[in-house]
Design brief:
Layout lengths: L6 H38 L3 E10 L2 E12 L2 E16 L1 H5 L5 E14 L10 H10 L14 H5 L4 E6 L3 H11 L4 E6 L2 H22 L5 H21 L8
Length: 245
């Protein structure tokens, strides 16, 4: 039996396996953390920071701890901060180059949190790449602006739009935030949604001014009519690419 087994080779193979396992244990999570921070920073145009990444093989999944995404327009504020994200991936389809997320959960989602240090990045390749794709000052981060939370908590129906170029991200955020009284739509036109969010104020402001003194619906409609025409002219030159639910 000993003639057929090369114990030196077995020992060498065992050492290599143990070395690879140790390398995986010590380095892999850190490499994933750095990759997420680098890719996120390049996509957003501001710092994306992650406290910890934990990759598991059995079952195949990834957990992220304290993900902070800086608001490019306000470097001392996080556009979104997530305490923990955990997801399980279909390993068989991953071998076929198909990424299928079987399960995902997010905890501790907060918007507009203060940062201890600035999240701005210097004028470099990452920032220039973002400006080249979206135009100077435009953000590629999904628009997650929420309505007045007091109205939502009081039970009033409300709706919002998740604008993101990646349909997988948009659909997952829609699933997380949507409830019986809070309807979430998705749209791939990020800049169009940002523009629409500003244009709605053209109607909302005169309507609110007319509503303040207690005027009726006719007065509010008359005050908003010129604004409606202005908005229609803008929409004709900036058509939004609507994504159905």
């Amino acid at each position: 039996m000993g003639k057929w087994i090369r114990w030196q080779g077995v020992a060498a193979f065992a050492v290599v396996c143990i070395g690879l396992a140790a390398l995986w244990w010590l380095v892999m999570d850190r490499l994933i953390e750095r990759a997420i921070e680098k890719a996120g920073t390049a996509a957003v145009g501001a710092k994306v920071e992650l406290d910890k990444a934990d990759l598991t093989l059995f079952p195949l999944g990834l957990a992220l701890t304290r993900l902070q995404i800086t608001d490019p327009d306000e470097p001392m504020t996080n556009a979104i901060e997530i305490g923990r994200i955990a997801g399980a991936v279909d390993g068989l389809n991953l071998l076929r180059r198909k990424v299928i997320i079987e399960e995902m959960a997010m905890e501790g989602v907060r918007f507009g949190t203060a940062r201890r240090t600035s999240g701005a990045i210097s004028e470099g390749p990452a920032k220039k790449a973002v400006e080249g794709r979206t135009g100077r000052g435009a953000s590629v981060f999904p628009d997650l602006s929420l309505r007045d939370p007091k109205e939502i908590l009081a039970g009033d129906a409300a709706a919002a739009v998740v604008a993101a170029t990646d349909p997988v991200v948009a659909n997952e955020l829609q699933r997380v935030f949507e409830s019986g009284l809070f309807r979430v739509y998705t749209n791939p036109d990020v800049i169009g949604c940002e523009l629409a969010g500003a244009l709605k104020n053209v109607i909302a402001i005169p309507s609110g001014l007319a509503d303040g003194p207690g005027t009726g619906g006719n007065t509010r409609a008359a005050a908003a009519r010129p604004s409606t025409n202005s908005r229609a002219r803008v929409e004709r030159v900036w058509p939004s690419r609507v994504m159905s639910r």
